[in-house]
Amino acid sequence: MKAAQITGFRKIEVTDIPDLGELKDGEVRFKTEYISICGSDIHGAFEKVMPEEDYPLPPGMPIHEVAAVAVESKDERYPVGTRAIVIPNYRKPDGSIGTGGAVEYIDQSHEKIIKLPDWGNLEDWIMLQHSGTVLYSAKHWGNIFGKKIAVLGQGGIGLSFTMFASKQGAAEVVGIDKHDYRLEKSISLGATKTIKYVSLEDLVERAEEVTDGELFDIVVDASGNEAGFNTCLNIIKPEGKFITFSIVTADMVEFEHSLMLRKNIDISATQIATTPEPIAEIRELVALAERGWWDPKSLKTHVSDISELQKSYEEYADQKNNVIKNVVRFNP
């Protein structure tokens, strides 16, 4: 079967890998229809500088956003034809390395399958994997009526936070980014104001202006940048809430430790993948979208074929052509 595989620095190719073999009892075989690129795929693999001997990466890695259709089933809950978001098998049962999501077929069990409605486009529904991870994190900010919230970074993750904050009744939702096109998108999805990032000093000054000198009640780091943590510390008010979502390449980042202590900040580190129920909020968001509370296609800006995967990765990495989320048809 076919798989996409990172074979070098900023290089991804479609390759052939062994077929899956016989389907196990209790599992469902899905044919991948769409994948979507995430920021963590870029700085965690595509642009990560690694020794030459580490290439190629395992097949399908690091793609984790997958929309697929069941083609064989040994679980009556998912008959043939079922549409779903499917979490890849990063590890095999014996603990060895498995595959990422950019593979032609995936065998999966109930615990990693998010069933989708029969209506609507899969290229839209796939966006809920991305935003569902944000729902888990957004639950940590509690009741936000009357609160002033800033979201650092207005890519797909940051925009999802912006939408949740707007829908949940925050008094102010301020999107922060260095790209004008993302700030325009932020306003269209519910931000009350935006700030273009130029420098930390300028950002603090602008934050004081829009909050009458108080700074923000809640700040979210969705920047994917090593400097994001410290940036957020500087624009949050004393005893404010700090939600950190960003995944960065470095194991260690610098921040103003004394500033954090003086402000008595409540910090919530949030990563749904390491929780006991890593797909619960994705399923919740699918249900909310089914009843019209959330528009699945809000973040999608580009759709391309697998033959253009290299270009799609480069476009996302270099933030060209106003890309926010690029969906790729898995049609090798």
Would you mind describing this structure in some detail?
The model has no long low-confidence stretch (mean pLDDT 96). Strands 3, 4, 5, 6, 7, 14 and 15 form a seven-stranded mixed sheet that branches. A six-stranded parallel sheet has the order 10-9-8-11-12-13, sandwiched between helices. The protein has a two-stranded antiparallel ribbon with strand order 1-2. The protein has ten helices and 15 strands. Helix 3 packs across helix 4 and helix 3 (127-138) crosses helix 9. The protein starts with a strand and ends with a strand. Strand 14 (300-305), helix 10 (309-317) and strand 15 form a beta-alpha-beta unit. Helices cover 27% and strands 26% of the residues. It has two domains: 2-115 and 299-329, Medium-chain alcohol dehydrogenases, catalytic domain (Quinone Oxidoreductase, Chain A, domain 1), CATH 3.90.180; 132-272, 3-Layer(aba) Sandwich (Rossmann fold), CATH 3.40.50.720. It has helices at residues 39-46, 122-125, 127-138, 156-167, 180-188, 200-210, 228-235, 257-263, 280-290, 309-317; strands at residues 2-8, 11-16, 28-36, 65-73, 83-86, 105-108, 113-115, 148-152, 172-177, 193-196, 216-221, 236-244, 266-269, 300-305, 325-329. The chain is of the alpha/beta class and 332 residues long.
In short:
The chain has ten helices and 15 strands.
